[in-house]
Structures are given as structure tokens and as C-alpha cells.
Specification:
Elements (H helix, E strand, L loop, with lengths): L7 H8 L2 H9 L4 H13 L1 H27 L4 H20 L4 H32 L10 H4 L1 H15 L5 H16 L1 H26 L16 H19 L2 H28 L3
Helix pairs in contact: 1-5, 2-6, 3-4, 4-5, 4-10, 5-6, 5-9, 5-10, 6-8, 6-9, 6-11, 6-12, 8-10, 8-11, 9-10, 9-11
């Protein structure tokens, strides 16, 4: 969902049940990135190089604009949906650097975002099943009644911010590092998205988890059930594991990415020679 054709996503998440949002965030949003890697770069390398500045511009707008929109959302699902658009901006930015580092980072970001965003929508589903509302203002002080939920939600929030030690850091770091080599201004503007993501993610966590437990219907809430723990615990472990040890992913994708970049650069050489560059 690249800007400006992203407007369907928040509405789709709001209307979808929890399972639908998980599938949409975890799998379907990555199809665009897969298409760029599978078709755009290998099949249309010259066009990809020529259109890279346009993609960089759209990526930066997506990162900054949708992060600002996320800051003013009152619905938890809409906030996370706009966050997804912003994070996918890093994916397209990394892919069109057409470098080993950038594409590795984009692939890792897709994997990490698939885990973290799906987990965040599951967390929304947990409280929605209990209260039947997604309004941020309807919550507050949940840590008193749901400490296990607060811990799980904290891990996913920190990964969404891109905190070192979580899977969200690796992909963003690699894509921004490759962007610095491709275009310094793109990287600088992209880095502002990290600050904005911290602003809206920590705002959401503070409003929902901390504060006074002064709403009567929240005082009867139960913490995570065994079934919910079984669902969320593996996602917590994967978020931390890939943040500390990303090699299992990078080692698997490294050879394919290296081959993709080599073929891309080889395809550009005849065109460069014809232009006398």
C-alpha cells in the first residue's frame, strides 16, 4: 500500500475481524514488495533505475505523512494500519536502492513487519473481545488488570518503534544505511519516520496501558487466557530472537539477493555504454 493509493487499508482493517487484519497485515501487504523483487528489478532493470527517484519520493511521503496521520487517530486499528503504510515505505525505499544491503533490509523488514503488525492486531483483538470498542479514549490503566498483556503489548510496541534488540530495528537500520549510500537526503528524511513512529506508538501504549484505571468496565477485565498466551508467546519470542540474531533470515536470503543485484547491475551496463556513461 504505497502512498497515495493506501487509503483503502485503514478502512479494510476497521471492517475486518481480527483474523482478517492479521492475514492482511502479515501476508497480503507484502505482495507489493514481492512483486518489486520478483518482477520490477529483474525484468525491468532500466525502468527501475529511472523510476527509483519517484519511488524514493513516494516512500518518504508515505513514511512521514502516514506517521503524522497516525498521531491523530482515535481508533487503535486505524493507528496501526497507518503505521503499516509507513513501515512499508522503508521496504520500497530499500528495494529501489538496488543494493545487497538495501534489499536484505527490505526483506527482513517485510518479515519483521509481518510478525509485529499481526501481533499488534491480535493485541487489539484481545481487548476488543472484552470491551467491544477500539477507541483509544475508552482505555487506560490496563497494566493493573492485565500485566501479562501489558508486557506482550510492550514488546510489540518497541519492535514497531524499531528499538535495538527487536526485529523491527534490523530491517529499518539496513534500509536506512543503504539509503545513505544511494541518496543522503532520502535517508535523512526517512530517519524522521523513526522519531514519528516512536511518537505515535508510545502515545498509544501510554494511553491504553498506563494512567488511572477509572473506567468501571475496565475494572472487571481478565488478563490473557492460556489460549491467548499460546498465540502471543511465540510472536514475542520471534520478535526478540530475530532482533538479537538476524542471521537465520539474512543467511537464507543473502545468496538470492546477491544474484539479483548482480543480474540487475549486469543488465544496466549495456544501457550505460550506449549512453556513453
Amino acid at each position: 500500500p504505497m502512498w497515495p493509493v493506501h487509503t483503502w487499508l485503514p478502512d479494510a482493517h476497521v471492517e475486518a475481524p481480527t483474523a482478517g487484519s492479521v492475514i492482511l497485515a502479515g501476508i497480503l501487504l507484502k505482495m507489493g514488495g514481492y512483486g518489486f523483487l520478483r518482477f520490477s528489478l529483474p525484468m525491468f532493470p532500466i525502468a527501475s533505475e529511472q523510476l527509483a527517484p519517484l519511488v524514493f519520493s513516494l516512500s518518504i511521503i508515505a513514511i512521514i505523512y502516514t506517521s503524522l496521520v497516525a498521531l491523530v487517530q482515535e481508533d487503535i486499528k486505524k493507528l496501526i494500519a497507518y503505521s503499516s503504510v509507513a513501515h512499508m515505505g522503508y521496504v520500497t525505499m530499500g528495494i529501489f536502492t538496488a543494493s545487497q544491503q538495501g534489499i536484505d533490509g527490505a526483506i527482513f523488514q517485510m518479515l519483521s513487519h509481518g510478525i509485529v503488525s499481526a501481533a499488534l492486531f491480535l493485541c487489539v483483538g484481545v481487548v476488543y473481545d472484552r470491551t467491544h470498542t477500539r477507541e483509544i479514549a475508552a482505555y487506560g490503566g490496563l497494566v493493573e488488570r492485565m500485566p501479562k498483556y501489558a508486557v506482550a503489548f510492550m514488546v510489540f510496541t518497541m519492535a514497531n518503534v524499531g528499538l535495538p534488540g527487536t526485529s523491527g530495528f534490523i530491517g529499518e537500520f539496513l534500509t536506512l544505511l543503504s539509503a545513505f549510500k544511494a541518496n543522503t537526503w532520502v535517508a535523512i528524511l526517512g530517519t524522521t519516520g523513526v522519531i514519528l513512529s516512536a511518537a505515535y506508538a508510545l502515545y498509544l501504549y501510554r494511553r491504553v496501558i498506563f494512567g488511572e484505571l477509572d473506567k468501571p468496565k475496565l475494572k472487571a477485565l481478565l488478563d490473557l487466557s492460556p489460549r491467548e498466551i499460546v498465540i502471543l508467546a511465540p510472536l514475542v519470542l520471534l520478535t526478540i530472537f530475530y532482533g538479537i540474531y538476524p542471521a537465520p533470515v539474512l543467511d537464507v536470503t543473502g545468496a538470492s539477493v546477491k544474484n539479483l543485484v548482480a543480474n540487475y547491475e549486469a543488465a544496466l551496463k549495456p544501457a550505460a555504454a550506449m549512453l556513453g556513461q
